[in-house]
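1st attempt posting a full record on here, be nice pls
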Amino acid sequence: MFHRKGLFLLLMTGVVIGIVAILLMTMGNPANMGICVACFLRDTAGALGLDRAANVQYIRPEISGFLLGAFVLAAGSGEFRPTGGSAPLLRFVIAMFIMLGALVFLGCPLRMVLRLAAGDLNALVGLAGFIAGIGGGSAFLNRGFSLGRAMEQPKSSGWVMPAVAVLLLVFLVVRPAYIHFSETGPGAAHAPVGIALVAGLVIGALAQRSRMCMAGGVRDVMLIGNYNLLFGYGAVFVAALVGNLAIGNFNPGFAGQPIAHSDFVWNFLGMALVGYGSVLLGGCPLRQVIMAGEGNADAGISVVGMLIGAAVAHNFGIAASPAGAPVNGQVAVVAGLVVLTAIAFANTRKRKGTMVTA
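the predicted structure (as tokens):
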């Protein structure tokens, strides 16, 4: 069980994320997308020219904030210890499929909670799929799944992702001709740069300290009956729900939800793929970004995998839209579930059940 201080920190982190998400939305971020790691990486991939989707191109300063907030706090607390080398190519592939699943659902686990807090009942379908996917991944953990032990890396290895975060901020401010910015669509909707960056720094620091992870929370419930990590996301939901009610943004139902669709099967399976992959990686998209900021090179590879996955989703017509999940997206989700299962079988050694910590 967590010490009371740890539980309080999780609750505080959840409340702050919920409040900040509502504030960012009121200041310009897309509706029900105050914070979404998958969407922010997708927009950043577009801005870097990795895909040609003109309406989702913007370097989201929140991503740089997450990385730098985690880096600064980890360095200040002596927790900046670069590690890596645990099946990097497999992690890249898993992360890429996590992003494909998220963009078929249209959101990461955090946005799923925020959508639900705004009354989007499609998120309930996604939540059911997310839990089912985590159940599948947890079954492999119980059988001995592992991607191998990470090894200590040079300090310079841990500086790469924070350096990338700074470079992205430079691109955002300078706006060179080779960086793309949307004029319409979700990419054109954003909070002021300074506010978004500060929000990211605060969330990155708090998430680093609290170890917040929704996939890890559901996994812990399944494997050891521990609900602590889920309290943080419960706090996100409550804080965002109160905020949405206060600003009149609570609209319960399935139809007409912003940047969402009601294709139930693919909402379920898209988030099942996200949950499945998150357990195999050892953390959900937000947790991967935070660990990358802490110096974890394997998490850094996962972030790059999600970035490339976002580009693939738009270059190959995989990402969903309010009209639903396209055929290519449906094929990609099924392929992802098959590939992740093959990876899980190939890296499972029969032993007594244990838990991989996110």
